[in-house]
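Newbie here. two chains, one complex. Structure please?
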Amino acid sequence: MFVDVIASVNEARSDDFIHKTVIVVDVLRATSTIVTALAHGCSAVVPVETVHQAKQLQEPGDLLGGERYCKKIAGFDYGNSPFEYTGSECSGRRVILTTTNGTRAIQKSQKASRVLAGSMLNAEACAKTAFALNRDIAILCAGTQDDFCLEDGLCAGLLLHHLERLGERTGMNDLGLAMKLAFESASGQIEQILLACASGKKLIKLAQKDDVLYCAQMNRFDLVPVFQDQRMIVF
Amino acid sequence: MFVDVIASVNEARSDDFIHKTVIVVDVLRATSTIVTALAHGCSAVVPVETVHQAKQLQEPGDLLGGERYCKKIAGFDYGNSPFEYTGSECSGRRVILTTTNGTRAIQKSQKASRVLAGSMLNAEACAKTAFALNRDIAILCAGTQDDFCLEDGLCAGLLLHHLERLGERTGMNDLGLAMKLAFESASGQIEQILLACASGKKLIKLAQKDDVLYCAQMNRFDLVPVFQDQRMIVF
């Protein structure tokens, strides 16, 4: 099994994903929010690229969620904070979610055999599912504005850490080797490091430090979102 | 002082280098070879992009060096192995060097205030020189065929490690943070890791394992190549 880690959506080539399992990672905050919403009983999360698409897809009972520049969109039910998706009002309902980088990463992965959503919160479960699918894996770090993000890279490192424990031999590209090494240095201080990286600093400024601390938790949920029929559901 | 680490030549935007010090890193093997040649008495190394340019620039007494696909170019005096540049026949002579990624990285950095050549071999000296220049720094990892290379990333981490020891506060981009963490994990096993990364494996196949081990040595030379008048000379 070979694992490629891709630094950002900008670096992703759709054709490279054919026959592979893609794990999309957007720790702050799209994939953490998708995991959280499904863990709290949402029936499905539909990731879309634009506000217009979100409104068009909405059916009675659906919730609209999403952000632009880390802020809730006017007229939407929720923003992109995972805490907004933990209440009983989400249970059994579909969420139409539009985010900038995470959604683009999912869209870019459509040619893959399977697309999973990974985060710190569900890394071990995600690694187990990807391993069981027994195909080469691409871990697509969503990044921010086409740039590499540390939190996604460290999550790739955590996924590789779990994948290596499952299989005797996991080959990986050079960025994967680098992220595994970085995660090994960082594992005891993930919270502090996520607070110090670019996205973390931005969220602190927006008074959303609690989101960063929440998303830094490793392996809190034993749940893997899979993309099927244009929506994320529990695998 | 802020330090940006750039993953490959492909990711570099020339205009971002204005007013900055750029450290070009191509551990396997261009910048390691440039450092070695200057340390053994070469008067200058002229990096050029094509074989044709190299032949056109050659004057009596000049040596031609370079590689394509890790192999010596037909009709050239030397390849790109640092060991070829340690003999007395190099002393006092100019080397015209054409390599694929390292040379492109140097060319791409022309708008910088200063362009230095960094490698494991001279990382501490390079960090000290860049720090003394007192400008923001971009560490440009040359990479391979527009992809990130672990050996260049770890060298960026080593440079950041030394820069942090020089200044109280060094800000860095997320890739810089990741490379510093990766270097901290790797520092005790740089040789093994460089033998396991993509470029290392390729050089082993070409029976050039000794080059990898040589280029993995940290801070062997107290010498910094600087790009001036289209050539690399000792700073």
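Moderator note: Residues 2-223 of chain A form a domain with the putative 2-phosphosulfolactate phosphatase fold (CATH 3.90.1560.10). Chain A has one domain: 2-223. Thread marked as resolved.
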